[in-house]
C-alpha cells in the first residue's frame, strides 16, 4: 500500500516504516511542522518517500494515518479534495495521554464513524473519552538496538525532551532529590541549561542531546535507566532502555505499571523508594546486570517489532477492506 503520514514522532515512525509498504511523508521548502520530510537523526528505509503538497495531489494513496486534529483538513486540501475517512480509508493515531480535566477529556475524534481511533496504550484508551468512535490499541514496537548494556558508569541515564518547559509532566522537579542518590545524565532535546535550572553542579547532573545511534550506546554505559515521568504516554525511551538490557527505576504512573514487570527494576509512586533502588544498583553492579537482562527479555516479548508490525497489518487490512 501507499500510506500517507506526517513525520510527527520520530521514534514511533522509525518502527512503523519497517513494514512492507511505501510511506509517503510530506515535505515543504522550509521543512516546517507540516513538512519535516524524512528523519535526519533516525535510520529510515528507502521505502519512505518525501512528497510535496503538489505531488500529493496526483499521488495514489491507499491509507491515511492522521496524528493531529488539523491533518484531516490539510490532507483533504493537499490530496485534491479526497477526504480521509470518506474517499480514502483513514485511521487516527493518538500518541498522547489526555491533558487538562482528565476524567472528562473528550477526544477530538470522538463520535466519528469514518475512521478508527488507534491508541498506543490501554491506559490512554481508558482515560480518553472516545465517544462512539471505533477504537483499537496497538502497543509500541521497538527496532531492537541490541543488548548493549555494560553499566560501567555509576550514573543514571534519563531521557526526556524539553524537561524545563514540560516540568512536572516529566518529573523534572523530582530530579534534584534523585540526584542526591545518584549522578544523573539527562539526554534529549532542549536539555541545555537543565543543571543550572535545577541548581545542580556538573558532577550531579549533566545534559546532552545526541542522535539516536549515539544515544543508545551512551545510555547502555550507565548503571540503570531512571524514568521519573508523572503524566505522559508510555515513553519509548523506557522501552528502548529495556531493550538495551538496562535495569529500570520508574515512577509508577500511566502505562509504566504494565510495561515494567517484577524482576526488571523498581516501580513506585514514592520518589524515596526510587532513590533507594538507585543506591542499590550503584552498590551492586551484578544485580543491575541481572535485572537488566530480565528487562530486555520482557521488552522483546511484549514490545518487539514483529508483534507491532503484525498488529498494524491486521488493523490496516480491516480498515482498507
Report on this structure:
- There is one protein chain.
- By secondary structure, this protein is an alpha/beta fold.
- Helices cover 34% and strands 18% of the residues.
- The chain has helices spanning 10-16, 53-56, 71-78, 122-127, 163-166, 175-179, 194-198, 212-221, 236-244, 256-259, 271-283, 285-303, 305-320, and strands spanning 2-5, 22-26, 48-51, 63-66, 90-94, 116-119, 135-137, 153-159, 184-187, 205-208, 222-227, 248-251, 265-268.
- Strands 3-2-1-4-5-6-7 form a seven-stranded parallel sheet. The protein has a six-stranded parallel sheet with strand order 10-9-8-11-12-13, with helices on both faces.
- The longest helix has 19 residues, at 285-303.
- The mean pLDDT is 97.
Topology:
Blueprint: E1 2-5, H1 10-16, E2 22-26, E3 48-51, H2 53-56, E4 63-66, H3 71-78, E5 90-94, E6 116-119, H4 122-127, E7 135-137, E8 153-159, H5 163-166, H6 175-179, E9 184-187, H7 194-198, E10 205-208, H8 212-221, E11 222-227, H9 236-244, E12 248-251, H10 256-259, E13 265-268, H11 271-283, H12 285-303, H13 305-320
Parallel strand pairs: 1-2, 1-4, 2-3, 4-5, 5-6, 6-7, 8-9, 8-11, 9-10, 11-12, 12-13
Helix pairs in contact: 9-12, 11-12
The best one-word shape is elongated
Largest sheet: 7 strands, parallel
Biggest sheet, strands in spatial order?
3-2-1-4-5-6-7
- The secondary structure category is alpha/beta
Q: What portion of residues is helical? A: 25-40%
